[in-house]
Fold:
Amino acid sequence: MLLALLSILLLPIAHSTSWNTPAQLTTGSITHVQPRISQDGTRITYMANPGPFKTWQIFIINSNGTGIRQLTNNTGSNLVPSINGNGTLIVFYSNVGGTYQICKIKSDGTGLTALTSTTQAVNTFPVISSDGSRIAFESHRTGTMELYSMDSDGSRLTELTSNNGIHEHASISSDGKLIAFDSNATTAGNREIFLVYSNATGLQQLTSNSGENTNPVISGNGKYVAFQSNSTGHSEIWLIGTDGTGLRQLTFDTVEDLLPSINYDESLIAYQTTINGYGQIMVINSNTGEINQLTNNQDNNFSPSIDGTGAHVAFQGNIAGFTQLFIASQVSGTVGGATVPVNRLALLAPFVVSVAVAVSICGALLYTRRRSKTNSQASKRRNNSTL
Amino acid sequence: MLAALSVALTAPAAHATGHVTLYHLTITVSANGQTSTSTILVPDVSGTGVITVPVSSGTLSQINGAFGTTTFVFPGTYTGTFTFNGTTFTVTLSSTDSFTIQFVQAK
Structure:
């Protein structure tokens, strides 16, 4: 019995994950796209095209569906927002001033500021670190599209790449120090995953796969990068450590698995796949390989964004001709599908204590009985010697 | 309209410097219960990731009427509907590449 108990305690403990039916966050006869959820899971930024201008504007909404707020309202196109970890700061690019510039705005709608001011060159696709300190973006200011980083106040502008390749899809770690991106500046000319520190040091090619390796997303802790690769013939989701070790394929199906989004500790990765001709949102547990299908409809779900804990996934889906935003949440009590780190010694403690108490009690009883017996025998001996 | 879109997007098929970024754009058209999907390569001659396509005011109006926008940011997917000769077409533009297409009125 003791061995059986120990065996149970020493087995890996895995909890399967359950997800609620996704909740629809937006309504109305306008298009809502490009959702990005904050690392703390409280807020989602996105773009939509309401009147009067009918151009793309930046919005924010609480992940429980309350507090919707339009942050920009101008004649320009305000595009592809990125949000910091606690959902208080949003960066995007806008051509309201003529040329696309990187802009920032607070979640309360104040503090709209253009962080770049190029006259001709476009500046696009900014991503802000969760701590809000650093922004990576693309810019054409040298005549070729390169990657740059800067502080969230626009200072310390740093050019990260400087060659004639195509460098795209920057993703930045929570502390703003490490940036993953894909580039075709490779020997074979295919796209590979690269890393660079946001101060432009440490540029390195992380993968040497065949095929196209794109859309990297770096985990918040900066330890892993998930990406899509078609090296097997069609696009699958892969994972690799930022130290270059641990490359592995996570999905193995016959359709295109695209646009990964990774949580803080790289345990959960959301992505888009196609099932029966329709886009569906999936989440894979990188530890156990467990896959959860979050959607099962004909809405052509797209663009998943997972929060830091992996408890929420925001995405877009098409309802009656208009794209709306949705959020899927883990059922309370399930633990991310991950193998939960357990201090097994702590689990054993009550058992050990119980055994120790039992042994002590038994020992005490035996000691008492032995002592009593010894005393009795001594008394007998004393009586005998007296006799 | 779809033909106009395709021609406008695929016309500049080469670039003098030989360095042109090609983005994948998948166009799905559904009508009368039938669906057709094709993927075209959209050349980015400017190299900026922002592709500006001048079209006539009529086409611009049609695009806006169908999709509710004339600026398409990818990765993304956009669905629009328009009617031609009494038949309703549903058009979906989608790509997982990162680029922006903006249709503007030709001068």
